[in-house]
């Protein structure tokens, strides 16, 4: 039996002072805290602060800048190059570039309301099934490349979450507020040979999540 682990890593915090839904737009890079998150994950995987050193032989990232920047410290910690896979891209979204919400957001404008007609698909963006299909393709390729070892795949919240739902045989439509996929979190898929054997979730950068210091001091 050959054990392989694929870590789906959500990128770190993004510099987004205007609060737009940036989607696949270019130029959105990690904030200072986002870079610190990436460094913490790299340290965790490399065995820092008492963690067991991961056997990472492959690091792959979405082509978007925030994912590439998150992958960099991990690749450096294990002496490998960052590979790029477009299958790890953020989900397509027709609200891209807009602020999303009722108040002063895009939902104030009636021309956007038809985009919300079917939340189960969803009608405003890339179908959940399509996201899962391309993420599975990325996982299959990574499993071959890292067979018997571990790989880190840096992607984005929604594709990671719906992929987890699919592996757990849960429905893909969901309440976005209930996603367990925080910034710089690891959703780790474990395989025995080519058989999916289970999933674990961890937050190596939890101490840097927005609100973490306030909660810890409460």
Automatic annotation (TrEMBL):
Superkingdom, taxonomy of origin: Bacteria
Recall the GO molecular function terms of this protein's record: phosphatase activity
* Any one GO CC term of the record: cytoplasm
Report the Pfam families cross-referenced here: His_Phos_1
Q: Which positions carry the signal peptide feature in this UniProt record?
A: none
Q: Which PANTHER family match?
A: BROAD-SPECIFICITY PHOSPHATASE YOR283W-RELATED, PHOSPHOGLYCERATE MUTASE
Q: What is this protein called?
A: Fructose-2,6-bisphosphatase
